Amino acid sequence: MTLKPLLLLPLALAVGCLAAPREVETTIDLGPQKVEIDVRLRDIRTEASDDLTQLRVFNEFARWNPEWINELPWAPTPTRFEYLGDADAGRLDLAMHGSMSRADFDKCARAAFDAGVCEDFPLALGKSGYSVRPEILDNKGLRVDPKAKASWPADAGRLGYRVGLSGRDDPFINVGPSLQRGFALHQSSPASAAETLKKIESCEALFVSGSVADWLTEVAALEACTEQPWCRLRQEAVRRDQLRLVYSYLRLRPEGADGLRAPPSRHIDFLGTAFTALLPKDLLPPIDELRLRVRYDVQRDAFGEQGWVTAEPKAWAPVCRPDTMKKPSLKDFCARLGVRPARR
């Protein structure tokens, strides 16, 4: 679902299944020469239930991105783009303000809903005045209050309407958590949040394409990291990648794949194909595959219960024993899980 038909300041916040507001309120003040537009995205919800994913999702929309309106040349760039968080209520809103000339506004209001530069313009202007487009009123994925005003005389000074999302296509809108936690983490130190996510991306790239030696050096440095909550988030990202690698191995094994649950999602890019190249050419003994599966399930349960993967390298040690790691491919596989080869 997209919010393009709803907003005079379109936002990609409702693209895919990352996040979306429960309600969008639009207020338009019509001046002789200029139109002032205020949009409020109320109670933004998400599928993200844990701190790391909340931060990553919020970071996607922390700042205005001009690319969001590339396909809508009529849409003004906002002069206000401000998140308003209420930790006590567990709620996050986004307030935006922009303006456009009255001539351009009325031109788009008179044009067809799908007409060129005015495509998806949400209001219509006819002989009886302004009105919300029927394409919006008839959209089954939206909730439009039938008692609310949806039309105004041509000389009205202010137009205003609210549209809610039904949640039919994005059920998290009704039952998902607020994105407030991701906002709070980001706002506690925007610079640290940005740097942490940058380091996580770099670490993920090293995990899937770097050498084992460089990876072990990175893990050792990360183990010494103490700045919280940022170090914990970076360590959590590593553990999830390790869990995804174990999943990639188990899902190809006859016994290991039976009833196997997917690992924590990365929210945008699963990196699944990248893990294929990391799988060992040698196979673990059947008993070790069972041990690996048990430890995977324990960590998957921990994530489901508390939103964190708790596996440290020692969790995989019963599988990555010295005799197992004599085979080079299994040695590298275990090293990616943080188990260091025994020194001779």
Describe the structure.
Mean pLDDT is 86; it is low at 1-16. This protein has 12 helices and 9 strands. A hairpin with a 4-residue loop joins strand 3 (80-86) and strand 4. The chain is elongated and about 85 Å long. It has helices spanning 51-60, 102-110, 134-137, 172-175, 180-188, 190-209, 212-223, 230-250, 272-276, 286-306, 313-316, 328-336; strands at 19-30, 34-46, 80-86, 91-101, 123-126, 129-132, 142-143, 151-152, 158-165.
Quick description:
This protein is of the alpha+beta class.
Features of this protein?
single chain, 344 residues, alpha+beta, 6-stranded antiparallel beta sheet, 3-stranded antiparallel beta sheet, 37% helix, elongated
Helical run tally: 12
Question: Could you tell me how far the N terminus lies from the C terminus, measured between alpha carbons in angstroms?
Answer: 58 Å
**Computed structural class:** alpha+beta
Task: Encode the helix/strand succession as letters.
Answer: EEHEEHEEHEEEHHHHHHHHH
Q: In what range is the share of β-strand residues?
A: 15-25%
| Count of strand segments | 9
Q: Could you tell me the radius of gyration in angstroms? A: 25 Å
Sheet with the most strands? 6 strands, antiparallel
Q: Which word captures the global form?
A: elongated
List the helices and strands and how they pair.
Layout: E1 19-30, E2 34-46, H1 51-60, E3 80-86, E4 91-101, H2 102-110, E5 123-126, E6 129-132, H3 134-137, E7 142-143, E8 151-152, E9 158-165, H4 172-175, H5 180-188, H6 190-209, H7 212-223, H8 230-250, H9 272-276, H10 286-306, H11 313-316, H12 328-336
Antiparallel strand pairs: 1-2, 1-9, 2-4, 3-4, 5-6, 6-8, 7-9
